[in-house]
């Protein structure tokens, strides 16, 4: 799902929509309500893999005032990640943990409707 094949000099376009269940979150106070949209590219430069992405989804959380479910967007407009090729065990790189971490860091402590 979130894997890239590493090839020197080749740019890989990333335009995918993924169901939010890959987050594997089972909490009553945080519901991922829409697919994760990823756009960007990945390429190898010298001895590093470079990822340039944007990610977007929505979550539902209880309002801090009235406790009603409130939908809020999560948008990471610029995710730039580099990995040394020496650190990679194979020519396939799985960046699902990166996307999960980037989006979960955007979840606010509380929301208001």
Question: Overview of this structure, please?
Answer:
There is one protein chain. The chain is mostly beta strands. The protein is built from 1 helix and 7 strands. A hairpin with a 6-residue loop joins β5 and β6 (69-84). The relative contact order is 0.25.
Present the secondary structure layout.
Blueprint: E1 3-5, E2 12-18, E3 31-32, E4 36-45, E5 48-62, E6 69-84, E7 92-94, H1 96-104
Antiparallel strand pairs: 1-7, 2-4, 3-5, 4-5, 5-6
> Tell me, what's the shape?
elongated
What is the share of helical residues? Answer: under 10%
Number of helices: 1
| Straight-line distance between termini | 34 Å
Mean pLDDT: 89
Structural class: mainly beta
Rg: 16 Å
**Number of separate strands:** 7
- Tell me the major beta sheet: 5 strands, antiparallel
State which percent range the strand residues make up: over 45%
Uncertain segments: none
Pattern of helices and strands? EEEEEEEH
Please tag this protein with its features.
1 helix, two-stranded antiparallel ribbon, mainly beta, five-stranded antiparallel beta sheet, 113 residues
Summed up:
This protein is mostly beta strands and about 110 residues long.
């Amino acid at each position: 799902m979130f894997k890239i094949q590493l090839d020197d000099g080749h740019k890989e376009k990333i335009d995918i929509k993924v169901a939010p269940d890959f987050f594997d979150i089972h909490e009553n106070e945080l519901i991922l309500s829409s697919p994760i949209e990823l756009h960007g590219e990945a390429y190898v430069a010298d001895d590093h893999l470079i990822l340039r992405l944007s990610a977007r989804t929505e979550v539902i959380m209880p309002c801090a005032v009235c406790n009603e479910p409130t939908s809020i967007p999560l948008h990471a407009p610029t995710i730039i990640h580099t990995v040394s090729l020496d650190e990679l065990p194979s020519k396939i790189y799985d960046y699902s943990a990166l996307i999960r971490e980037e989006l979960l860091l955007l979840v606010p402590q509380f929301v208001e409707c």
